[in-house]
Amino acid sequence: MWIDTHCHLDAPEFDADRDAVRQQAAQAGVGHVVIPAVARAHWPQVIALAERHGDSYALGIHPLYTPAAQESDIAALHAMLAEHRHDPRLVAVGEIGLDFFAAGPPQGKEQPPLGAASHTQWASVGGMPAAGPPQGKEQPSGGAASHTQWASVGGMPAAGPPQGKEQPPRGAASHTQRASVGALPVHGLDAARQTWFYEQQIALAREFDLPVILHVRKSSDQLLKVLRATPVVGGIAHAFNGSAQQAQAFIDLGFKLGFGGAVTYDRALKLRALAATLPLDSLVLETDAPDIPPHWLYTTAEQRAAGQPQGRNTSAELPRIAAVVAQLRGMALQDLQAATTANARAALRGLKGFAA
Predict the structure, then answer these.
(1) How far, in whole angstroms, is CA 91 from its chain's centroid?
(2) In principle, which of 67, 81, 160, 211 could form an S-S bond with 156, CB 3.0–4.6 Å?
(3) 206, 232 contact by CB (below 8 A)
């Protein structure tokens, strides 16, 4: 059985048939799914979904949701992690990280402070540092992002399918549907604010001795800098698309690297080379459903204009994605299945208690 280490089963794209989607994945051989949250409002739902389907979950604040996040969300996350610390289905803090593809990297050499209080100064009940996150001049309103802005959860890695200016839409949902769950326009992202929330959540992962599920878009070096300063017990660099050197740096810190639909595109040469050559024990598989559709689901803007719908990515696509990785590595599919299942359990220790 396969483990999908990253699926947003709580996304509105699945509202009409969520249970059926999970059942179809099980029938395709996906025995376990990790459901990472993206915002405070999503935490109760990912917990409930994991319980209902026998899966696992992660709690966190996604970088693309930081414009709408509040300082109090960090204290709330501390309280939620404390409340569920003995829940075997809680396997990580995530999805957290940095997205500089959308926001651009921080300007200058200085990194924003963690706040007035250090991790060691945190109160036992989850107190918030006196200084909140860096404030930009304007907070964006929800739902203003277009498909080309791609303000959805995860987006497409730089080496993904479309070449040139076009960015693929996140499944079939419109941007007005995205607003209902807090999607935010890319122009509202602030690198310093993202970094503040990332540092706070890394501190929480360290406090609760949990792995992290990282969102990595044009931000590997900045993510690694924080991890070296505040080590955690590893985790997964989700939808990894950095260099071989950056990959090794994550591996050296105890991380596995997530590969999904983007690796199925022939033109993703760098990503496919990484999937083929990185150590087998460093790889885990994921769909990021409903995001990052594999090539057989992706439609261009011209095709969509002609009436061809965008295919919906689900966890059921994982075995076919895995077949592409197995072919790239020149190995048997069942051997890849055994290895990536073991790797997922090593990265997210809580998975060891669940059959897959």
Answers:
(1) 14
(2) 160
(3) yes
* Cβ contact 65:98 at 8 Å: no
Whether residue 165 is predicted with pLDDT greater than 90 in this model: the reply is no
How far apart CA 213 and CA 100 sit, in angstroms, is 17
Dist CA 327 CA 343 (whole Å):
19
CA-CA distance, 211 to 227, in Å (whole number)?
A: 11
Chain position carrying tokens 């999937």: 275
Q: What is the CA radius of gyration of the chain?
A: 19
Average pLDDT, the chain: 82
Give the bridge partners for 96, in sequence order.
214
Domain spans of the chain, in order of start: 2-353
Q: What are φ and ψ of residue 154, in 5° steps?
A: 100, -50
CATH code of the domain occupying 2-353: 3.20.20.140
Helix (H, G, I), strand (E, B) or coil at 274: helix
DSSP 136-192: -S-PPPTT---TTT--SSS---TTSS--SS----STT--HHHHHTTT---GGG--HH
Do you find a cis peptide bond into 317, omega within 30 degrees of 0? no
86: helix, strand or coil: coil
Residue 212 pairs in a beta bridge with 93, 235
HSE at residue 91, side-chain half, CA atoms within 13 A, is 28
- How many CB atoms within 10 Å of residue 52? 12
Are 294 and 314 in contact by the 8 Å Cβ rule? The answer is no
pLDDT at 345: 98
Torsion region of 71: left, alpha or beta (phi above 0 gives left; psi -120 to 50 gives alpha): alpha
Could you give the CA distance from residue 152 to residue 157 in angstroms, rounded to a whole number? 13
Q: pTM to 2 decimals?
A: 0.81
